[in-house]
């Protein structure tokens, strides 16, 4: 069975933490893996600030999704 999670902008930080934990990681290790995989040098503090200020870019979310082995799907509301 495929698991689906609907991300909501008002609590995306908590949702990403939850998904990260489901995959057996913590946020620091997840961010470290993103940095290694995509050749970045961002800090975990930078990620937390972006989540707090709702300034996370779609490309950054896509990188996180890749590390967590999820895909982003846009679906028209019913």
Helix coverage percent of residues?
Answer: 40-55%
Biggest beta-sheet profile: none
Count of distinct structural domains: 1
Radius of gyration, in angstroms, nearest whole number: 12 Å
Distance between the termini: 22 Å
Mean pLDDT: 93
So how many helices?
A: 4
Instruction: Label the structural class.
Output: mainly alpha
User: What characteristic shape results from the CA principal axes?
Assistant: globular
Listing every helix as H and every strand as E from the N terminus to the C terminus, the arrangement reads: HHHH
Percent strand: under 5%
Low-pLDDT sequence parts: none
Record field, number of beta strands:
0
Description of the structure:
The protein is globular and about 40 Å long. The protein starts with 11 loop residues before the first helix and ends in an 11-residue tail after the last helix. The protein has 78 residues and is mainly alpha-helical. 54% of the residues lie in helices and 0% in strands. The longest helix has 12 residues, at 27-38. The protein is built from four helices and no strands.
